Amino acid sequence: MNKKISRLCFAALCLLFHQLAHAQSVQVEGNVLAKDKSPLVGVSVSIKGSSTGTQTDVQGHYKLQVKDAANAVLTFSFIGFTTHQEPVSNRKIISIILEEDQKKLEEIVVVGYGQQKKKDVTGSIASISNKAIQDVPVTNAQQALQGRTPGVDVLANSAKPGDEPTVRIRGTRSVTAGNDPLYVVDGIPYSGSLNDIGPGVIQSMEILKDASATAIYGSRGANGVVLITTIRGKVSKPVVTYSGSYGVVNTLGQTDLMNGQQFADMRREARRAIGRYNDNNRDSSDRAIFNPQELAGIKNGTSTDWQKLLLKQGYQTNHALSVAGGTEKTKYAMGIGYFKDQGVLKLQSYERYNINIGLDQMIGSRVKVGGSLLAAYSNRAGETYNGINNAIRMLPITSPYDENGNLVTFPNNDSNLPNPLLDYVPGTRTENRKRFRLFTSLYGEVEIIDGLKYRLNVGPDISQYNYGLFQGKNNFDLLIGGGDATARKTSGETIAYTVENILTYNKIIKQKHNIGFTGLYSVQRQRGDSSTANVRGVLVENQEYYNLGEAQNVTGVGSSLGTWTILSYMGRLNYGYDDRYLVTLTMRADGSSRFAPGKQWGYFPSVAAAWNLTGEEFLKGKRNIDNLKLRLSYGRIGNTGIDPYATQGALQRIAYSFGGKGVLGYTPQMLRNPELTWETTTSFDAGLDFSFFKGRLTGVLDYYKQKTTDLLMPFLLPYSNGFNSVLQNVGATSNTGFEIGLTGVIIDNPKGFNWTMDVNWSRNRSKILELMGGKQADIGNAWFVGQPTYVYYDYNKIGIWQSSDKIDFVVSPPKPGEIKVEDVNGDKKIDANDRKILGSPQPDWTAGTTQRFSYKGFELSVVAFARVGGMIKSDFYQNTNTLFGRFNNLNINYWTPNNPTNDFPRPNANQERPVNYQSLSYFDGSFFKIRNITLAYSLPESLVKRWQMSDLRVNVGVKQPLILAPYRQQWKGVDPEDVNVIGIDAPATWMLQFGVNARF
C-alpha cells in the first residue's frame, strides 16, 4: 500500500516538474533577414496574444523572453514585408527570412475609364482613402480634399450650412470661363451640387492633375478631374456598420464693434471734425446729435451686443447605417444616412437624407453586371439670409426691447435701422431650397476572349429643386423704405444621361511586354428647365410662398430651358516593357453642341512615359530603395467655357412708344459670334515617385507648366456700335508650379506607440500672357499682362495725413486725419492714374499635414493646413468702417488731433465714407489652421466579442479649434479663409463632436 502511494506521489511530482519546465521563461533569439540575406533593422517581434515584444537591432538580431515555449507563437512584422508567425516549439534559436509585401507595388488605383497598378501609372494622380476622408467631419466631398494633397487648393466661400467650397487644381487657367474640376462618380461625369453625395459613402477619391491623366476626359479635363468611387461589397458574411456623431457648434469669435461709449465718442468726433460739436457745452452738443432714445441709452450706459442677440449655439448630427457583404458571384452594399447642420444663426440650416445601393453580379464566368444608386433629399434654409450684416450696423446705445419686453421696430427712429430680431419672429421670414437627386451608374461587362472586354456604362441622372422665399412686411429688408409682404417661388428640373461604350484589351507577351488598349465612344446629354414667379402684397402672411395667385401684384415671371450634348471618341494605348519602361498615348475627340457648326469639334492628344529605375541592375540590391519612378507627360486639354446658345446671340424684351402708345419689342441682348471655339490648355509635367526604407518614407515630386490659349473673353467694342463687347477667343494665360507630397512612418510598433505623418507642399504661379487686341492691360477688369489672373488694383494706403505733414497737392489738397495714398506718378494729385497693383489672392505657397498617433487602442489624429502669402480684401473694413456716425463701426484706432495714428482716418459726419475708403480693406492673407483633432478609442476585442460585435470605437474631436493669421490676431478679423473677398456673412465656427462607430 505504501509503495502504491509512493509511486503516485512520484508521478505527481514528475507531472508538476514537467508543467513547470514548460511554464518557465526561455530566452529565444535569432536573426531576421530580407530575401537577399541582408539584416532587417527595427522588425517588431512579439508573442502572439500578449503585449510582450521587442525589435531587431542594427544586425537584425533579437532576444526575447518567452513563457510557455512549447505553445507560444512569435509574430514578426515590418513595413514593406508580409507579417510572419512562427511557433516556438521549445526552440531557443529562431531565424527567419521575411518576404517582401508586394501589395504596395500591386496596389490598384482608379484612372480614367479603368484601373491600373500603381507601379504602372504614368500620369500625376493623387489618392485620398476612405480613412483620410473620415479623419475630418465634413458636409461634402470637396471639404475632405482641403490640405490633403499637393496642388489642390480648397477654400470655403462662407460658413453657411450647406455652402460648398471652391476647388482649384493647379491654379486658375481661365479668366472668365469655368475653373472648377470635373467630378466623375463611379465612372459617370457628375454635375451640380456635391452636397447630394454624403461623404460616408465614398470609398476613395483620385485627383487627376496632369494632361496624361486628364486628357482622357477631353473638353472637360482642363481644370483637373476628381474621380469618386463609392463603397462596394466584398466577399464576406453580411457586415452591419453604424456610425453616428453629434457636435455642438460655436462661433470662433464676433466682429469687433464699438460698444456704447466708443460709438458715442466716435459720433462726437465725427461732428467735431466739421465744427458741429462744442466741447465747452457737451450737454447741448449731445442733444443736437443724439435723439432722445439714444441720449437715454447713453445716460443708462446701454451697450447692446446685437451680434450676440442673433447668434446662438448650433449643432451637427450625422448618422449612417449600412450592410455589405457577398459571395464570389454576388457582392452588395447598401446604406441609409441622415445629416443635419443647424447654424449659429437661427434661420440657417442644412438637412440631408441619403440612400446608397451598390450591386455587382457575375453571370457565368465572363459576364458581370451591376451598378450603384445614390439618392438624396435635402433642405437648405436661409441660404441668402445675412443677419450679421444687419446686426453690425445697429447702434449699441439703443435697446431692441421696450419696457414691456416687446421688440421695438425702429430702436432709434432711423428708417435704415430696423430691428434685426424681427426676422426671428415666426412667419416673418421663410426661405427653403428643397432638392431631390437620383444619380445612378449602371454597367454590363463581358469578357469576349481572354484579355478583351466590352463594357457598357449607362448613367441616368435626375434632379429637382423647389426654392421659396417669403418676407413679411415686418421683415428687416422690407422695413427699409416700407413695403408689402413679398414672395418668390422657383422650381427646376435637370435630366441628364451618359452612355459609354468601352472596349479594353490587355495582353502580356513573353513575360516582358505588357500591352493595354482602351477605346471609348460616349454621349452625354443634359436638359434643364426652370420657372420662377415673384409677387408683392401677400395679404395672408401665413400662406408664405404657397399661394402666389392671391397676391396683389405679380412683379416678375420667367422660365428658361438649357440643353447641351457632348459626343466623344477616345483611344488610349498603354505599353510596358519589363515593368521598367512605360508609355501611355491618348487621343480624345469631343464634339460640343455649345459651339456653332464647323467649330464644334476639339481634339486632345497626350503622351506620357515613365521609367521604373528600381528594375535596373544598378539599383537592384539597394535595400533602402523600394521604388523610384520618373514620369514625363505632355498633352492638350480643353474647356467649353460657355453656356448653351452663347454662339447664337439672344434677344431681350423692351418697352417703347409707337404711335403714341406703349408697346413691347425685342432687341439683341448680345452680339453673336459663330466663330467661338474651345479654350485649350497645353500641359507639361515631370514627376518622381519614390519609396525608401521598406516603405517608411514614400512620396512624390512634380513640376508642371501649363499654357491656356484661345481664352473665352469679352472683346471690348466702341459704345457707338450699340454693344460694349463681344465674346471672342482672345488671350492666353500660363500656370507653373511645384508640388511635394510625403508620407512617413516615424515610429512603428504594432504592440505599442505608432506615429505616421503625411505632409504636402505646393507652389503655383498663374500669369496672363496675352489680352485682346494685343493690349497690355484691361484696367476695367483688372487684367494685366505678366500678372496673375486675379489681382487687386487700387490706391495704396501709406498712412494718415498728419498735421505736421507738408501738403503740396495742386488739386483737392487733403486734410489732416484723411487717408494718405501713394502718389504713384508724382503729379501732386490723386486720381485714377495713381492706382496700382497691390497684390493677388494667389498665395506664395500652401501646405497641409495629417499626423496620426496610436497606442494600443487609442488613436489621435491632427489635420492642419496653411496658406502663406497672398492678399485678401475684407468687406468688413470697407463697408463697416464708415466713420460718419449713422451706423455702428468696427472698433478701430482712428485719428484724432490727440491721437495722430497712421492706422485709420478721422471720423467725419460730412462723408458717408472716408475718401479712398476702399484702400483700408487689403490685408495679408496668410493663415495656419488646425482643421481637426480627433481622439478615438477602440474597445478591447474580448469585450466587443462578448457583446456579439466585431468592432466598437468611440471618439471625440474638435473641428477648427485654432486659426493663426495676421488678419485675425492683428486686425481683429475672424477668419481670413475665402476665395477673394472676406464677405460679411455667417461667422466662422468651431465644433466639439462626439461619435461612435460599431460593426456587427
Automatic annotation (TrEMBL):
**Does Membrane appear among the keywords?**
yes
For membrane topology, the record states: Multi-pass membrane protein
Question: What are the UniProt keywords, alphabetically?
Answer: Cell outer membrane, Membrane, Receptor, Transmembrane, Transmembrane beta strand, Transport
Q: What is its main location?
A: membrane
Q: Which InterPro entries match?
A: Beta-barrel_TonB_sf, CarboxyPept-like_regulatory, Plug_dom, Plug_dom_sf, TonB-dep_OMP_SusC/RagA, TonB-dep_OMP_SusC/RagA_CS, TonB-dep_rcpt-like
Cellular component GO terms, alphabetically? cell outer membrane
Tell me which Pfam families the record gives.
CarbopepD_reg_2, Plug
Domain TonB-dependent receptor plug residues, every copy: 117-225
Q: Which residues form the signal peptide?
A: none
Transmembrane found in the keyword field: yes
Query: According to its UniProt record, where is this protein located?
Result: Cell outer membrane
Name the family the entry cites. Answer: Belongs to the TonB-dependent receptor family.
Q: List the protein's name.
A: TonB-dependent receptor
Q: Which organism is it from?
A: Chitinophaga solisilvae
